[in-house]
Amino acid sequence: MEQGAKGVKEIASADQPFMCSFCLRPREETGALVGAPAVGICQKCTEAAVVLFQNSVPASDTKPRAPWDALNNEELLGQLPKVAKARDDVENHLRTWVGAARNRKISWASIGESLGMSRQSAWERFHQSVAAEDKSA
Q1: Among 37, 40, 61, 113, which residue is least crowded by beta carbons within 10 Å?
Q2: Which residues pair with 26 in a beta bridge?
Q3: Are 94 and 82 in a shared domain?
């Protein structure tokens, strides 16, 4: 168990989230983040989630609400670069994981299958970043 936890910690520290995945505020503003690879949640959002769960109504009475519904146009536009940054962070993290798979000599066919794409699509999408990692190592 100890070694498994250490492995997860090493992976997470290699590419820690730079912002809260929920409020999209940067780590410099939020302080510590609790997270897993490529996602994190700040203390303020964690506390809000606890309050939400403590005061929640039965699921059948709730209507899903998109996060942008509460924002005016300026606020919505202000969030777009943060969402794009989150997308880029996730893509970079995925490339790191694919690189780890290739370092273990896992085939492009297996990688593609796990991602729901063909071997060729996986190779076209990731081979350059994997090759760049090999050169920098």
Answers
A1: 61
A2: 19
A3: yes
Residue 23, annotated as binding a ligand: yes
Confirm or deny that 42 is annotated as ligand binding.
yes
Is the entire prediction scored with pTM above 0.85?
A: no
Domain end among 64, 85, 118 = 64
Query: Binding site annotation covers 135?
Result: no
Sole residue written with tokens 């940054």: 85
- Residue 117's pLDDT band (cuts 50, 70, 90): very high
Burial of 122 (0-12, 13-18, 19+ CB in 10 A): buried
131 carries a ligand binding annotation = no
pLDDT digits (tens, 9 = 90+) for 9-41: 443 444 566 788 888 888 889 988 888 777 889
**Pair (1, 41) in one structural domain:** yes
Q: Which residues of 28-37 are buried (b: 16+ CB within 10 A; e: fewer)?
A: eebeebebeb
The confidence score (pLDDT) of residue 114 equals 97
What six digits make up the tokens of 16? 């820690």
Are 55 and 72 contained in the same domain? no
> Which residues share a beta bridge with 39?
36
